Amino acid sequence: MRIRDITADDAAETARLRKVAFGSAPDEDPARPGLRGLVAELDGRAAAVLTIREFHQFYGGLPVPMGGIGGVAVDPYARGRGVATGLLDATLRSLREHGQPLSVLYATVPALYRSCGWERAGVFEWLDLSVDRLPRGPRVLSRAAWEGDLDALHACYLDLASGVDGLLTREKPAVDVADVLRHDVVSVVPGHDGEVRGYLTAERTRDGLKVFDLVGRDADAALGLLRELTSWGGTLERLSLRVTDPAVVGLLVNQGIRYSVTTSTWLLRVVDLPAAVAARGWPGAAFLRPAAVDLEVVDEHAPWHAGRQRLVVEDGRVRVEPGGSGAVRVHARALGPWFSGMHDTRALRRAGLLDGGGDAALLDQLVAAPGVPRLADFF
Question: Ranges for the N-acetyltransferase domain (predicted)?
Answer without folding.
Answer: 1-137
